[in-house]
């Protein structure tokens, strides 16, 4: 099974390499002995994230998880990086493709499938719902420090 690799780490950051998106197929995520998802890897723990979780996933043509899921507290953003497929939330099915982004509230019953002819690659970001405020939108601080490479 494929594993992530720490690139660099210090007090204020962790950098991890997950490999080429085309090689995501080598990851296997085991939820239970009966539910194993090939081509999926979670990354939050690898980068020491403290406020969210994320995963990369690749689905080969015809692949689907075979189950719906919801969350107790977490909203999800799905970013589709390549390929085409279909997404389903609460029984509504719609097409997705490279460049599509889908937000799903915790209670939304969701699933995705690759009904295209090439691999479907996605990044999913999971975070606690209703925690981002108007003040958070201005949280960034531009510094006067000179950038040196």
Summary?
The chain is built from no helices and 12 strands. With 149 residues, the chain is mainly beta. The chain has one domain: Jelly Rolls, CATH 2.60.120.
CATH H-tier superfamily: Jelly Rolls
Instruction: Give the strand line-up of the largest sheet.
Output: 5-6-12-7-10
Structural class: mainly beta
**Amino- and carboxy-terminal Cα gap:** 36 Å
Q: State the helicity in percent bands.
A: under 10%
How would you characterize the overall build of this protein?
- The chain is 0% helix and 44% strand.
- The protein has strands at residues 5-10, 13-17, 28-30, 36-38, 40-42, 52-59, 74-82, 84-89, 92-97, 101-104, 110-113, 120-128.
- The strands form 4 sheets. A 5-stranded antiparallel β-sheet has the order 5-6-12-7-10, with no helix packed on it. A 3-stranded antiparallel β-sheet has the order 9-8-11, with no helix packed on it.
- The model has no long low-confidence stretch (mean pLDDT 94).
Note the main attributes of this structure:
149 residues; mainly beta; Jelly Rolls; 5-stranded antiparallel sheet; 3-stranded antiparallel sheet; 0% helix
């Amino acid at each position: 099974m494929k594993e992530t690799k720490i690139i660099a780490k210090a007090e204020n950051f962790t950098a991890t390499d997950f490999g080429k998106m085309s090689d995501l197929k080598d990851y296997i995520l085991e939820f239970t002995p009966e539910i194993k998802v090939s081509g999926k890897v979670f990354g939050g723990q690898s980068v020491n994230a403290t406020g969210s979780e994320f995963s990369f996933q690749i689905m080969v043509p015809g692949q689907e998880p075979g189950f719906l899921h919801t969350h107790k507290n977490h909203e999800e953003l799905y970013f589709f990086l390549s390929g085409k497929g279909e997404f389903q939330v609460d029984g509504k099915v719609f097409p997705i493709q490279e460049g599509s982004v889908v937000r799903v509230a915790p209670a939304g019953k969701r699933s995705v499938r690759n009904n295209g002819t090439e691999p479907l690659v996605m990044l999913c970001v999971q975070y606690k719902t209703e925690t981002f405020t108007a003040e958070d939108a201005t949280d960034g601080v531009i510094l006067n420090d000179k950038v040196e490479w």
